[in-house]
Amino acid sequence: MAEPDALGQSGSWAQVTDEMAGRRLSHDFGVSVLRCVGTQIIGTEFRSAYETRVGVFSIIVVCNDANNAKYDVTVHEGREVTVSRATDKRKITWRDERLARFLFEYAFTQTYGQGWRGRVQVAGENRLLGPPPPGDLITAAARGDLDRLRSLLGEGADPNGADERGRTALHDAGAQGQLEAVRFLLDHGANVSAADERGRTALHEAAAQGQLEAVRFLLDHGANVSAADESGSTPLWGAAFGRHRAVAELLVQRGAHWDLDLSLRELLLDNTPPPGFEALFNGKDLTGWKGLVAFPPWRAKRRPKDLAAAQRTADESMRAHWQVVDGTLVSDGKGDNLCTAKDYGDFELLVDWKILPGVYSGIYLRGSPQVQIWQHPVGSGGLLHNQKNPSSPLKVADNPVEQWNHFAIRMIGEKVSVWLNGVLVVDNVTLENYWKRDRPIYPTGQIELQNHGNTVYFRNVYLKEIPR
Q1: What is the pLDDT of residues 388-399, one digit of tens each?
Q2: How is the chain split into domains, by residue range?
Q3: How far apart are CA 429 and CA 281, in angstroms?
Q4: Is 278-465 the same fold as 134-267?
Q5: What CATH architecture is 278-465?
Q6: pLDDT higher for 369 or 96?
Q7: What angle is formed at CA 304 by the lines to CA 300 and CA 309, rounded to 5 degrees?
Q8: 237: closest CA among 460, 422, 463?
Q9: CATH fold of 134-267, please?
Q10: How far is CA 62 from CA 8, 48, 83, 204, in A?
Q11: Distance from CA of residue 407 to its chain's centroid?
Q12: Distances from the Cα of 321 to the Cαs of 327, 332, 339, in angstroms?
């Protein structure tokens, strides 16, 4: 099969980034997917190409009858993936049945919708080749699926096998509070001290997510209460910034020490700002926030009367689509960004956030996009819309989706620094003016929590103004 550029000659390729497929391939199948380099639909044929660390492979789905077509998938050695109706007798060439099944079903459902189920034939012996990849064990552990864990270990899976970020099944079992899975893995040789590429252990993950019983069990089985990751953060740090009081108290009882300048007691109170900070969100309602009215250049040209009318309309939309649920700001995925009622110049901003799979969001600084939030191999925290200055984070520091993350953002003049979960991911980088590329960023402006058509969660939003 031709490379993506050659394929592009037969139709128009849209350059896209397919985060969910890429993350699934990397996590579940151990395939190092760098990016989706293009998708194409020509007549009844759907194509999608992925760049990996071992080259480029493609998916082709040919469908002449979406309602009644029957498909076979045959797996052979190679990197090229081709799928079509069984009567066309084309082949899918990849040596992992599970990967073949996923690629085919993913491509088909993206083209023709959900509800399709295919059948897979494997050339030669109908079995998997080699031990299961680490992603299988990690997924089963996160779900607490003991039967699947037992089956995978029986097939030769390594209880300490790690994904590309160094995470093991024990990391995800601890983070999700799957106590029986934690117990099972430790009973079958999992290393309680195993650290990922950031130096974080299963105890770090369980503590940061407030999984009290998992934390207790890990401590009882030898987890180091004082283990520090590459940024110096201990499990107590994660529990404190996650406002998990019971977990923090247990860690202190087991010998953890608090060595930050912040008061641990005050930090553990939800929606209580650290000394010197103010709470932008009161944990109860939308006081201090407003709806988004267009963008800065548009607002600057409006008469006060017209701007006030537009603001009233935007506020009505804000109240319809942003709610406070259990002390958390929640967007329903409709409407627009949530904006501070005040403008700010130089500041430090602390905010906790959580997303669901595939969600895209961010934080606008002085009304301009944005400190990025998403599920993506490059990680969150980068200044996504920069063109001349760095746009990607220095490191991947995200917690798994559906778990809380913590931003610390400092903006002085044009320069922005971002810490994600205690890790420096943006170091004093110029934030460019998205709205007027030939001008510096605005000296003051509102802070916005982005609604990009997805449900997203924010809490513990604190700000400290820095005098100029």
Answers
A1: 999 999 988 888
A2: 4-122, 134-267, 278-465
A3: 27
A4: no
A5: Sandwich (2.60)
A6: 369
A7: 105
A8: 422
A9: 1.25.40
A10: 17, 12, 7, 47
A11: 13
A12: 16, 6, 13
